[in-house]
Amino acid sequence: MRVGVVTFPGSLDDADARRAVSLAGGEPVALWHADADLHGVDAVVLPGGFSYGDYLRCGAIARFAPVMSEVLAAAEGGLPVLGICNGFQVLCESHLLPGALIRNDHRKFNCVDQELVVENTATPWTSAYSSGQHIVVPLKNGEGGYVADEDTLDRLEGEGRVVARYVGENPNGSYRSIAGIANERGNVVGLMPHPEHAVEELTGPTTDGLGFFVSVLEAAVSA
Amino acid sequence: MARVVVDVMLKPEILDPQGKAVAQALPRLGFDGIAAVRQGKRFELELDGDVTEERLTQIRHAAETLLSNPVIEDYTVHVEHA
Amino acid sequence: MARVVVDVMLKPEILDPQGKAVAQALPRLGFDGIAAVRQGKRFELELDGDVTEERLTQIRHAAETLLSNPVIEDYTVHVEHA
Amino acid sequence: MTETVKAAEATPDVEQPYRELGLKDDEYARIREILGRRPTSCELAMYSVMWSEHCSYKSSKVHLRQFGEKSPQTDAMLVGIGENAGVVDVGQGWAVTFKVESHNHPSYVEPYQGAATGVGGIVRDIMSMGARPVAVMDPLRFGPADAEDTRRVLPGVVAGVGGYGNCLGLPNVGGEVVFDPSYAGNPLVNALCVGVMRHEQIKLAHASGTGNLVVLFGAATGGDGIGGVSVLASETFEDSGPAKRPSVQVGDPFMEKVLIECCLELFDADLVVGIQDLGGAGLSCATSELASNGDGGMRVWLDRVPLRDASLRPEEILMSESQERMCAVVEPAKLDAFLAICEKWDVLATVVGEVDGTGRLTVEWHGETVVDVPPRTVAHEGPVYERPYARPSWQDALQADEPSRLPRPATGDELRATLLDLVGSPNLCDKGWVTDQYDRYVLGNTVLAQPEDAGVIRVDDETGLGVAVATDGNGRYAKLDPYAGAQLALSEAYRNVAVTGARPLAVTDCLNFGSPEDPAVMWQFAEATRGLADACLELGVPVTGGNVSFYNQTGETPIHPTPVVGVLGVVEDVRRRVPMGFTTPGEVVLLLGETREELGGSEWAHHVHGHLGGLPPRVDLAAEKALAALMAAATGLVSAAHDVSDGGLGQALTEMVLRRGVGVAVALDDVADDPFVALFAESVARVVVAVPADRVAELDDLAATHGVPVVRLGTTGGAALAVAGLFDVPLDELRAAHQGTLPALFG
Ligand SMILES: Nc1ncnc2c1ncn2[C@@H]1O[C@H](COP(=O)(O)OP(=O)(O)O)[C@@H](O)[C@H]1O
Ligand SMILES: [Mg+2]
Fold first, then answer.
1. Secondary element (H or E) of residue D172
2. pLDDT at D229
């Protein structure tokens, strides 16, 4: 089972994502932004970081990278794609996911151990969790406020496409405390918090994040 | 050399934490009578050669696809000096 | 209600990483003939009541102290619609 | 017109503006003597910036020598003082480099960019050793927490440290936030970076091998940070010269992140002979140091330097401090491979010179020679001052003003109120408002980070080899006694590293002082360096590098002398690291070390009485050594350990119970006769540990063998900090007091 992890200029958590894939029992494959080729991977992770410095808008420039046209096409075809933090922002800028992420309402970057509730376990990235399960993983970003218009939000809720929600005080002003969402088909998931930083007792607050990477391996096997 | 300016502002219905912070800071520094503040981005594009209708169309397209995100932002394009 | 706009741009001699990023992205997306891009901030201040010379002075002062750092930035103030 | 060497020879008597450039008459005379003629305007630019205090260390050199002379015998040191950063052997073929530097003045003028470029600069120093940067730390000092200007400076500095470091993908694993009126108008923004490499990957800033090429890569060169020299760039020295150049720089962290990855790929492909970062004094420094350290000479074609601002004159290009630039020496045969990797990362790279056999540094501008100098005279043989120093007249009175005269809390209620007041004071309160703005997770190797005593980073996934780093410094102690103050900074950082289970190995230091032209300040500096060198020798940890920052003062008033000391230690297996917080109820809590009535310069005297006087706690390096040895032997036995420092035992227990929400019940009778002394004295060489009840005897034995006194304090558990016979504080109340302060001040 091969999981591709894209490196854009300015990607930061790509090595962490690859390590998480290995710990889950998969084979990580490094993908390069300028290389319009997915090298036959079974799933793709767009990792966290500051692609192109996020100077314009988070993910705004990365979206146009050659590899993204391949990711878009494959995603339409059902390939499991997980965008974490900056990756989530790239997916929104690419219109693979609705809405957008804006500056945290408190205007500060914040790095905290965040409690989440996993609401949708039907996606290839969340099947290892039980619906309603509470997990704690790091949240670290300056522009993590999820926004979308009311209709979009209602549709996301109605179709059960809110994958994860913040528990307790809203950490960044995200509408309806949304931490992660999926596309209609469910194969494309965007997540603000960082499961790849919660995969080892030694370095993470918990190992709750491993489930995302275990899930996609199972999905690929059953697929 | 000609300059075209693209202003990008968050849509009114989208919360603007930075503008809000400025609005709150102003009175503390003794500036009153300011009802609201919005903070956006200003892009100054220097063109070599002069501004043609066709290039403006190009720039509007860039404003729409790259410089702004239509989901949350509005933009305006104007020529500052041709 | 009157609107006063404060534009804040990095001084010309100061590096502008944001503008640089945009300038490099544009050609990659097929937008050519753009010699340089600078990215700055645009503040839209909504005043209740109308714009008086005295309030403009106030706003210029705010632009100088709060909205910009004169060490690296220049600002301009103009009334958009009184 | 830019003067050629010929022109300078032809016109020996031309007046030159060396004074405006900060050169003294005798320094200018010496330049003429070295060259046997008057310098060209480019040469004058080069010498003036390279002979400045900042680049030449002319006032501090004679004192810093002690770090080498008194350096303890250790085979751990692979690269010592003098290079961009020191390198130590941490075993298994791994080497670690680390260094702390200051960016104080820019951070006051433009807090965000000043702090950001401070981080950028130290990271490039670490890269220039051939290492991958793996973590940063930021020791910070500000004026009073409630001062209006602190509200401007602190949030900007913190956002800048975070904005740059987070964007580089470097975990921030520690630092300091200290408030004191002496830093109002002169905040201290120090930044530390740690890098890791294999032994064989170590690189040096040497331009060797005649025919090798000098490649400038990274950002284009602009008019950043060259204010002074514009007088040279003007056509004639009379007119005012071009538009004033900015003295503050804007950082481009994305450029630097790409530069890091690019450099690492260049190192892995073994494509560089020598490498040097461009920091203070820009190309003047990089070229002269590379050439001076090399075996030949160097010729530079200055007109090939890519410019951001075409109007720059050669004098300005030579001293521009534009950020995010590196300079490499490359074999001609490897140039194409080198450029290909730069291309892959979209990094601008240009051949700007070559190593030649002349032994001289020559710079050409459009075919004309504008610089022709012996490189050593620019880079390494600058002026050296024996600045006069004298113990200030007020020192005796200050030391005589004992805190013993201050009214103290006595009853349980008074002690309780004092504890809550202190744990919420700006210097002792929780620093989460600051540290939550820093990414501590990125790279996935952070084993311990703030608020733990030291940052611990995993170096090797397989073996669990890791390093621990902590920084400390106490300006109040140093004001009372600079010699002891520097030693106390070292012993606290040493202890902070040791309590995690690491073996302290090496030291870096950032010496923040007032004006060296003030004999009192110079005395403080002489005392502090002497103290630090002596203590390093006794503790067996060499100084591997650091930084001096002078002229930290507002008007005539200098800051407290503030030596900031960073200690690096090795952790053989990070899985055995010891955290600071109580984890398990029912464990026995012990205090290791001796508590004396030591309150001079204490947080209690400072916060409650605004008092600074008497003597700082007595330095006890032998006790620190024994304690460190004990802690190393006790990993696997102690389940929590936290050093006792600012704020005393009360503060240490507070931090230990709040970390994981496990309370404690203690009795103070065996700590000191006066419970006030037991709670708030700041005696050194003390650590609080928790041990499973059935293993206390083991610890007692260990302590006995190491000659470390042990006092039994009590037992973990419950939802309060309970002090027998005196008071109880519920954890919620304690947490509210400890965590509420900075959010209330800074939003
Ligand atoms: N500016 C900062 N950046 C990162 N960590 C910090 C900063 N200031 C304080 N810390 C962390 O907060 C904790 C408490 O700081 P401090 O009380 O100075 O530690 P200690 O007393 O053990 O030296 C330490 O882990 C320290 O590294
Ligand atoms: Mg400590």
1. strand D172-179
2. 53
Q: Which of D161, D189, D193, D431 to mutate to test the pocket of ligand 1 (most atoms within 8 A of CB)?
A: D431
A170/chain B closest Cα distance in angstroms: 15
Q: Is there a catalytic annotation at residue A194?
A: yes
| Ligand 1 site, residue D645, Cβ cutoff 6 A | yes
As a whole number of angstroms, the distance between CA A113 and CA A140 comes to 9
- What is the set of active-site residues of D? 54, 103
Is there a contact between C39 and A56 if contact means CB atoms under 8 Å apart? yes
Q: Report DSSP letters for D273-332, one per residue.
A: SEEEE-BTBHHHHHHHHHHHHSSSEEEEEGGGS-BSSTT--HHHHHH---SSEEEEEE-G
Strands D297-301 and D361-365: parallel
Give me the pLDDT at residue D226, please. Answer: 76
Q: Are D197 and D150 spatial neighbours (Cβ–Cβ below 8 Å)?
A: no
Distance CA C44, CA B35 (A): 11
Query: Identity (one letter) of the amino acid at A56?
Result: L
pLDDT tens readout for residues D408-463 = 999 999 999 999 999 999 999 999 999 999 999 999 999 999 999 999 999 999 99
Q: What ipTM goes with this model?
A: 0.92
Q: How far is A54 from chain C (nearest CA, A)?
A: 9
Any ligand 1 atom below 6 A from CB of D739: no
Does the beta carbon of D496 sit less than 6 angstroms from any atom of ligand 1?
yes
Residue nearest to atom 12 of ligand 1 (CA): D451
Interface residues of D toward C, Cβ cutoff 8 Å, are: 109-110, 113, 219, 222-224, 243, 245-255, 308-309, 322-323, 346
Tell me the C-alpha distance between A61 and A2, whole Å: 27
CB-nearest partner of A111 from D258, D438, D447: D438
Please answer whether residues A73 and A104 qualify as being in contact, where contact means their C-beta atoms are separated by less than 8 angstroms: no
Among all ligands shown, which has an atom nearest to the Cα of D188?
1
C-alpha of residue D499 to centroid of ligand 2, in Å: 9
pTM value > 0.90: yes
Using alpha carbons, select from D99, D80, D176, D174 the residue that is nearest to residue D489: D176
Chain-centre distance for alpha carbon D176: 11
| Strand ordering across the sheet containing D172-179 | D77-79, D86-91, D94-102, D188-198, D132-142, D172-179
Indicate the residue of B21, B66, B72 with minimum beta-carbon distance to A102.
B72
Instruction: Specify which residues B78 forms β-bridges with.
Output: B5
Residues D628 and B28: their CA atoms lie apart, in Å, by 51
**Gap between the Cα atoms of D188 and D559, Å rounded:** 9
How much is the mean pLDDT over chain D?
94
How much of chain D exceeds pLDDT 90, in percent? 91
Q: What is the pLDDT of residues B28-50, one digit of tens each?
A: 878 888 889 999 999 999 998 88
Ligand 1 centroid–CA D431 distance in Å is 7
Q: What is the mean pLDDT of residues A92-115?
A: 96
Q: The tokens 């500056």 sit on which residue?
A: A103
Q: Which H/E stretch holds residue D114?
A: helix D111-127
Task: Fill in the amino acid letter for D124.
Answer: R
Give the side-chain half-sphere CA count within 13 A for A199.
Answer: 25
Pair D328, D205: CB distance under 8 Å: no
Ligand 1 lined by D452 (C-beta under 6 Å) = yes
| Ligand 1 atom closest to the CA of D450, numbered from 1 | 25
| D139 contacts D473 by C-beta, under 8 angstroms | yes
Instruction: Identify whether A58 is a catalytic site residue.
Output: no
Between the CA of A206 and the centroid of ligand 1 the distance, in Å, is 23
- For ligand 1, say whether the CB of D140 is within 6 Å of any of its atoms: yes
User: What DSSP letter does each residue of D22-82 carry, written as one string?
Assistant: T--HHHHHHHHHHHTSPPPHHHHHHHHHHTSHHHH-TTTHHHHHHHHHTPPP-S-EEE-BT
